[in-house]
Design brief:
Layout lengths: L4 H37 L2 H21 L3 E5 L4 E5 L2 E3 L1 H38 L7 H17 L4
Antiparallel strand pairs: 1-2, 2-3
Keywords: Membrane, Transmembrane, Transmembrane helix
């Protein structure tokens, strides 16, 4: 069996590519991936939207999640919010504000969830560690709001 310099060169080249060049390319790919994620997905705009979403959800739970009713008597219509009688104007204002807060929450949730799904897909596709900073941001903001309001979780 003849061993030639060409065969030795091929083995050395295969080792060089396998153990040095390929890991370097993968490191560069991961670096670019995480730069793209930090610039286009996990950026300050998303963090602001997550904070705004949690604040709106907190406002919704504290101000608009109660029961509002309209009761009709023979000669009078009574409006109530959380069991307290209010004027017709106050009731309509409460109803419109709750609708606006709910719409803003839905819009923000759609944007946040779209980015979260894309992040999850990227991490899975490129076999990266699955992280979920968006939910961590939500939890931190909720704790901050509860601490501000004096509510313990």
């Amino acid at each position: 069996m003849d061993v030639t310099w060409g065969a030795i060169g091929k083995v050395l080249l295969a080792g060089l590519v396998t153990y040095i060049l390929l890991p370097a390319v993968l490191i560069a790919r991961d670096y670019v991936l995480w730069r793209v994620i930090s610039v286009y997905i996990l950026n300050d705009d998303l963090k602001r939207k997550v904070t705004q979403y949690v604040q709106l959800a907190h406002k919704w739970n504290n101000e608009y999640a109660g029961q509002s009713k309209i009761e009709f008597d023979d000669d009078k219509t009574r409006y109530s919010i959380n069991g307290q009688e209010v004027s017709q104007e106050d009731w309509h204002q409460h109803f419109e504000e709750s609708g606006q807060v709910g719409q803003n929450m839905r819009d923000l949730k759609l944007e946040i969830d779209r980015k979260a799904r894309f992040l999850k897909w990227l991490l899975k596709h490129y076999e990266q560690e699955a992280i979920d900073p968006i939910n961590e941001w939500k939890k931190l903001e909720m704790k901050r709001l509860e601490k501000r309001d004096g509510v313990s979780s």
